[in-house]
Amino acid sequence: MSSSPIQLHNFIGGRFVPPSNDKYFESPNPSDGSTNALVPDSTDSDVDAAVSAAATAFEAWRNTSREARSKILLKIADLLERRIDEFAEAESRDQGKPVSLARMVDIPRAVHNFRFFASAVLHMTEKSTEMDGVSINYVQKYPVGVAALISPWNLPLYLATWKLAPAIASGCTSVLKPSEFTSVTCYLLCDILNQAGLPHGVVNMVFGTGPSAGAPLVSHPKVRLISFTGGTVTGQHIARTAAPLFKKLSLELGGKNANVIFADAEYEKCLATTINSSFRNQGEICLCGSRIFVERSLYPKFLADLKARTEALVVGHPSDPATQIGALISKQHLEKVMGYVALAQQEGGTIETGGTLVTNIQNGANGFYMRPTIITGLTHLSRCAQEEIFGPVVTVIPFDTEADVVEWTNSTQYGLSASVWTSDLKRAVRVSGQLEVGTVWVNQWMVRDLNLPFGGVKGSGVGREGAPYSWDFFCEERAVMLAL
Ligand code: NAD
């Protein structure tokens, strides 16, 4: 059953403050449609106060040692780890994901983000050169300044900390604006930041909508860097705003990722992973594989088994440990995803399974649930196979040749990730090497090494994050040439 809504406040200069207009909006609990949080409806004056606090804090924070920053990051990680259960429950209530998933993935990954960058910052080294006894030259890295961090609703704390941790590590100060749909765990983190001894103003949070709170943050003259994760259309808007102001920009945007499955794939692993990559977190992960291309000789068996496994998935209340698929983020998003089911039929597709709302969830009658859905009979150029649906819906399409499947994989405006399934090592390398994406998994999915560059190409974004890429992004470089 739902508890009474939590009222959030902005976090500015280490203090919790109401929005200047004293307005709040209701953020629903996706599992039952009740109000989960009252979120500040912040505007430009709140953003200005947060940016000013960050700018003031930057003067001292930029000069702290890497060791000092590392210690604070480790403290944050420890404090968060002690509260994993509380944060997992809060994340699940706010986002609709199964609490078991938040407990196993989201919150531990947020802890890991802090620990990883606490360690990474101690190991960053810079280049130096010497010119024939004339000059010795070296590169100095220094923090950019005030960073705007804007995050989406699908992996709320996980993706916010993917930005916060390197910003803190590099000596930047920041203003984070989480998604208006999922602000609660970021809000809870503020308390931990204070307890860990992070100086006031190093991290500030402003809660609110994209147009009211996000837009003034992006265009604020004192913000020197923007790290944004969200939709491609929002990313275009932010890029248009930021370009004439010469802000450093990282855009992690949408995806329409392909699973390329050859007939010689290790069958059981491939099938089980495809279920995960299709439907984990209700299919609301930017890295989910939503276009499944299967070599024609394997296609009938694979489709039958995929369908049977999908039908066995438990859609349920996120708090139920047996639940595998929780609630979608909002009524509006559920309607958008169901709209694609209708579109698939108009495009001539067949709904093999799913495509229906689920309305009989105990304690969740007004929640946003649907059955995981498999669509066949569409080409790779159909709208359902080209546009990002971002829900538990996949298209399965047979292919005949390697050349075809490479062309089809590359045929969308997106280029975030792909997975390739084959036992033929040469083919794995050949196919991977032709895919226009930022990440390729071979015979696996969603394995993340934070040392590697993470990001997309084409409509999936610009820039890379991860160590050392985040270090490069959150720092400027100065070349110093010293006469000998
Ligand atoms: P969204 O673009 O609607 O919102 C993302 C964030 O931007 C939110 O905090 C929102 O309030 C803010 N925002 C909206 N308009 C803004 C504006 N004009 N100026 C500044 N900020 C603004 O995206 P979403 O619906 O929250 O998230 C889903 C999308 O995120 C999907 O497309 C998904 O693929 C993508 N995503 C990408 C990655 C990645 O790593 N590439 C990871 C997760 C999600």
From TrEMBL:
Q: What UniProt keywords are attached to this protein's entry?
A: NAD, Oxidoreductase
Q: Which CDD domains match?
A: ALDH_F8_HMSADH
What's an example of a GO molecular-function annotation for this chain? oxidoreductase activity, acting on the aldehyde or oxo group of donors, NAD or NADP as acceptor
Q: Where is the Aldehyde dehydrogenase domain?
A: 18-480
Name the active site residues: 252
Superkingdom of the organism of origin: Eukaryota
Identification of the protein by name: Aldehyde dehydrogenase-like protein 8 family, member A1
